[in-house]
Amino acid sequence: MANKTLAIIKPDAVKDNYIGEIISMITKAGFNIKAMKMIHLTKAQAQKFYEVHKERPFYNDLIDYMTSGPCIPIALEKENAVEDYRKLIGATDPTQAEEGTIRKLYARNKQFNAVHGSDSDENALREIAFFFSEKELLENYYD
Ligand code: ADP
Ligand code: MG
To answer: The dihedral of CA 17, 34, 102, 91: what is its sign?
Structure first.
């Protein structure tokens, strides 16, 4: 049974020209890409996407960061997608991330950490729906 997760190549990694490397790591790890786009988030969009972090001390910095340039949301599908993708990206802070993970290789620091990954199946569906319409998700393409 294939599960879904939402990846985002964040503005720092787009600026640092790591788009190709990161997508390559994702597809080599066995994820299918269901939908993908490049988008420069407005402040209102970023605030809505990260609403769960509203009370966190880093919230305003996070909104500034995520609106600082274009990012690339990617809807992914794979068995055990949420957990496997979080394993592939590594810990939030790249100094704590395992060798060979996307954040270890491409993040600048704990804030500018190259990629996003959903933290549960429920949030994955909510986050995918935030960026993509039903029509944009290639529902039966890989079957
Ligand atoms: P993750 O992205 O690993 O799920 P969180 O959901 O806790 O991490 O945080 C969301 C994002 O907020 C992080 O990816 C990072 O960009 C930023 N962030 C988290 N913690 C901090 C912090 N202490 N200082 C600055 N930015 C942070
Ligand atoms: Mg998170």
So the answer is: positive
Parallel, antiparallel, or unpaired: how do β-strands 32-36 and 72-78 relate?
antiparallel
Residue ID of nearest Cα to ligand 1 atom 25: 111
What's the rounded Cα separation, in Å, for the pair 99 and 101? 6
- Residue 121 domain-assigned (yes or no): yes
Tens-digit pLDDT profile for residues 98-110: 999 999 999 999 9
Q: Measuring CA to CA, which residue among 71, 101, 83 is closest to residue 9?
A: 71
First to last CA, the chain: 11
Return the CATH number at 120: 3.30.70.141
> Atom 14, ligand 1: which residue's CA is nearest?
92
Whether 53 is a known active-site residue: answer no
0.85 cut: is pTM over it?
A: yes
